[in-house]
Amino acid sequence: MLWIASLCLLLAASVLGAPVNKERQKVLLISFDGFRWDYDRDVDTPNLDRMAKEGVKALYVTPPYLTITSPTHFTLLTGRYIENHGVIHNMWFDTTTTEKRPYYQTQFVNEWWDNGTLPIWITAQRQGLKAGSLHFPGTASSYQGEVAMVREVEPPFYNYKNETAWKENTDKVMHWFRDEDLDFISMYFGEPDGTGHRYGPDSPERRRMVEQVDRTLGYIRQSAERHGLVDSLNIIVTADHGMSTVYRNGLVEEITLRKIPGFSFSDLSFHLVDFGPSGMLLPKPGKLEKVYNALKGAHPHLYVFKKEEMPERLHFTKNDRILPIILWADPGYVINGYFPVQFNKGEHGFDNEDMDMKPFFRAVGPAFHKNLEVGPFETVNIYPLMCHILGIRPEVNDGHLNATKHMLVTSATTQAADESTFDMTFTGLAAVAGFLVVVFIVMTSHIILKNKRKIKRSGSSEHLPEEKTKQTTF
């Protein structure tokens, strides 16, 4: 019966070993901080234009609220709204000690990032791929004890606008892809955010910085070609948020909480204000209603919500780190505490429905259609798109592949191939199971028949001596 077992194994191997043979795809996720969706409209951007012709361009994308750097970047890495991944602010804070840490120091507070939500680096590595990150927010942290396989965190006081460093970092990332065979890398550039803050989004300085971004995108694609990655590397370029001009010079009535009748900082245990157009307050016990009622309607451009009353579309309620009272201002306005201390000409952190908060999006590579312009979508959907291209199972997330799969040349064929593979596997398994059932029946019948014959022969042998004796007697 050895031949039957061998035949079964060969049949199973031929059926189960026939998945579609697809070349492995790589993904480079690039963020240019603060690159608003329309920044290419008043600047000559030949490389961005070329990416649109050779790939996909979205009209714009919508970031999650709160529209600031660390929270929105972690949404790109996880596909989760901010209330679900828990990185709710650029600043780590402790409401008991009232300690606050600035953006850069917060990068190294492990528990701030490691909330049970895994970034795509860890998911990819757990499924057999290799992942890395350069300067991307969240890179410095570990997640359930794991880190990106290859990573680099920017040093303190880093010059985010150094174009020479941008080229060096680009070649470093391409080296990781080619020589260390990484499958996924996230890469961060701190501009044009810094320039937009300092000079404003409508300034000539911002336009010059966009030209630098465009040159760098051209260099990135040239470097990919030099490293022999064109046929396997998919490049996704986007941003965390946009930028809006701040009203100043006495043109508007500024929002200063100290001046609001009935409001007092002595009624608060902790607050996060003076950081742009948004803020959070923790009133002392028994003071919530007093603080809320004093601020509600106090300024025509100030919005005040109890945490549980936040609009559901913002997904900024269901997290213990979010403080009981949330403030945000209309575009162009910032929230001051005791007196104005903010002097930026540009700001972000406004409602994510405001057009000034929308980032840009480009994608190019073997997985993407060419010369395709698509409508807007939420950045929470970029995560399942990247997982699909990499061929990995995504973690629980708030995005949907349906929002982006029309960008992919393989969306229909891959789905069909997957369904075909499933059907082939199911049919094959059924065939193998049926064959094994038949073999089992045949073998069982053979054994039963064989045993019956043995029993019959054995019975005949037991009566034979007695019969012979009788014959002899006669």
From TrEMBL:
Q: Where does the sequence pass through the membrane?
A: 426-449
Q: Does the keyword Disulfide bond apply?
A: no
Q: Check the record and name the SUPFAM superfamilies matching this protein.
A: Alkaline phosphatase-like
By what name is this protein known?
Ectonucleotide pyrophosphatase/phosphodiesterase family member 7-like
The record, for Gene3D superfamilies, names: 3.30.1360.180, Alkaline Phosphatase, subunit A
Q: Pfam families under this entry?
A: Phosphodiest
Q: Which residues form the signal peptide?
A: 1-17
The reply to whether Metal-binding figures as a keyword in the UniProt entry is: no
